[in-house]
Amino acid sequence: MSKLRNQARGNSLSVLAGFFVVLLFSTAAFAPVIATHAPTRQNFGAVLQPPSAEHRLGTDELGRDVFSRIVHGARISVMIGIMAVGLGALIGISLGLLAGFYGGAVDNVIMRFIDVLLAFPGILLAILIAAVLGAGLVPVILAVAIFSVPTFARLMRGSVLSVKQRDYVEAARAAGASDGRILGSHILVNCFGPVLVYATLLMGDAILTAAALSFLGVGVAPPTPEWGAMISTARSYMRSAPHVVLVPGVAIFLTVLAFNILGDSLRDVFDPKG
Amino acid sequence: MSTYIIHRLLYGAFVVFCVITVVFFALHLAPGDPIDMLLPPDASGAAGRELADQLRRRYGLDQPIHVQYVQYLRRLASLDMGESIRSGRPVAGELLRLYPATIELTLVSLLIAGVIGISAGVLSAVFKRRAIDSLSMTAALVGVSIPNFVLGLLLMLLFALHLGWLPPSGRDGPIWSGGSIRYIILPAITLGTSAAAILARLSRSAMLDVLGEDYIRTARAKGLRARAVIARHAFRNAMIPIITVVGLQFGGLLAGAVIAETIFAWPGVGRFLIISITGNDFPAVQGAVLCIAVLFVLVNLLVDLTYAVIDPRIRY
User: Using CB atoms and an 8 Å cut-off, which of residues 210-249 of chain B contact chain A?
Assistant: First the structure.
């Protein structure tokens, strides 16, 4: 009975997390409609104001509406998340596919390359890439994408190694299918499930890393309403107006929390042992 | 065992070499000229170009890139990392001065994370599905989800700015030679929280796995007290996966130190790296990245060797 109760509680938490993610994506999609003000419009007559009827979440140090900036920030975070994870998945999956399918020297070269990438502490790699390419949206996307390549490559390689032993691959080969055809229409489709699940989980990580880079001043630069950048510029005012740090902080926290909860329940589905 | 150590050392050296190479070429092929940062704003025309050429010669930037690379490697072999463009001081000296602060912060965070994380995880496993389990697992979920820069600022806001219990930034000096520990508390909690949360979840599942084993039932059946079963039979066997993750976390903490050091103005390598990046100080960036990467490789090597000591079944 208590197990059942636990499961039900776990499920309702996942539903809540799923609901939040849907909310996040819709906010990103309809940001201009939801926002009450232009996200970069300054109003020096109303700086660092606490939440009010006019400004639902108050204003920041330049009198910009925090609510509107958070809403537009959701758009930027979601965009970074999707593009970075998509690009990382594209590169990682291709590398893993080649390494797992061909084995031997190809496998060795690719996996040693992945090892070197992993030898770099993740955030340091992202900082370095962002530093080399300069501040901006594209460098951040690239940095976060490269940061996620190793995990995708390893995951894909693992799945390919097990799938390529299956009878249907053997049958396709016996029927004279080319390597490309076997990879494309037999192996890739059968390895896609776990990788797709993993990609959704990485979204939270990607959004967090991007925010951390902007917070450190090597990511998306102000005045773009990116959540990490908002915290970074507002920190000097947090004593007199804590909301300027708290609001974007809570936004990042809830986003990462939601993806983590979803991740946990997905892991339970795929690995019921835990 | 010794062949294994040699193999691992060689591999570590290879990785460090790759890191050096990647960092060197990435920074040199990057858009943006470090010389621009050094020129006075009024330097233009022939005089400006003359000055730029002089500076380029001084830093060896007029040579072809492969020549610069070989020169860089040669100087690195004698631990010469060049001069910081910003301060003019040797980078190696700066790093040598800063890295003990980073190690200190990382170790204290790891200690906090280890003690809190492992005890919370073990308690959760022993009192599975009771209040203490739900409480610590909820705390762990929050702990892994809260971004460290948000947590750091919240801690600073509450304990330093509002309550005034702890200093908001800086470092008093090494704690092993009498420096006040008040300075390290907030940055160490900021850095250690996610590691504590990860360790709590892992310790719980490792303990639950072990508690289901036959030898635990045997130990209970022969009338051993619950505490002895948990401490002597269960916990010792659950240690292997826990130690692995402690080691992995140490590397992660080294990297996370960049953020904690930046928030609390902790004078370590991570903060130096960020200041150098924003100042386009190439030699300093190169040195700092190298310093962190080498520490990371060494720590991972140490962790691998530790397994052999803890688990006599592992033979290399």
Answer: none
